[in-house]
Amino acid sequence: MITNKNKYLAYFFNKFDYLIRFLYSQLSLNKLFFWKLYSSDFERLDSSFEKVHFFLKSHNFSFQDKTCLELGPGNSYVNAYNFLFNGSNKVVLVDKYPRHIKTKKQKAFFQKEKEFIKTKYNNKEIDFDKIVFISKDLSEVELNEEIDFVYSISVFEHIKNVEENIKKLSSILKKGGFLYHLIDMRDHYNFDNPFLFLKYSKKTWENYLTKKGVSYTNRIRYSEFKEIFEKNGFEIISEQITRYPMPNKIYKAFNKDDKNIDIGIWRVLMMKK
Ligand SMILES: C[S@@+](CC[C@H](N)C(=O)[O-])C[C@H]1O[C@@H](n2cnc3c(N)ncnc32)[C@H](O)[C@@H]1O
């Protein structure tokens, strides 16, 4: 949201973050703000997909005839298109707070994204019959088929009931199926001060400074995420972690001795055992 480009402004935002977060979440300012803030960037997502695809191929994974599920696609279908054009036979998109194709801006975004993907794949037609969009929490979704591949980009840090979602993923993914997640565990308020939010107690954070909905952020740390995935039968095949400097003060409930507490971004490929 904010960067340290203007150091006086950054000082103000960091000093008064409680007040600003409180007003932002309690007054539902996210409805007023910012189409851009809550809109996906399909070119960035496409470029991430290409990197992940390259990586998946090196692990002998192919999309051919696979059923894929993307958790939290936001307002972008770009990953769904990429799965399909690489051979997938069905894509299930699950987003609890969908934001697509209602307003003029969203329609224009959808159109632009379609043109982008058509250019990428030499004007091939998109088979929309193979895409299913479900606007629910995954833990409440009844699926009649097993999934081969699950994908999510910057979603798990926004999910409130993480354990239920991971448990559900474990029940719908085929044995040997793959899962790729990018989890951004930084404070989304100011990416230049990535662990500022760890100074608050759970009660303060959950009740006053973040709000259920699109902008909700949990503060689950790497070690806890890892433990939940492993407990639910997932094995890490490969991971890339990015660490950031820790602030001096964090709330006592966070484990300062956890040597992985400073992980901000986790890119992980897992397999269902
Ligand atoms: C930061 S956005 C990321 C969107 C997209 N993946 C991207 O990178 O542009 C997080 C997304 O997670 C979705 N989300 C939040 N909680 C969810 C839940 N319990 N189940 C599914 N999606 C959820 C939000 O609606 C939102 O679309």
TrEMBL record:
InterPro entries reported for this sequence: SAM-dependent_MTases_sf
Record protein name field: Methyltransferase type 11 domain-containing protein
Organism: Candidatus Falkowbacteria bacterium HGW-Falkowbacteria-1
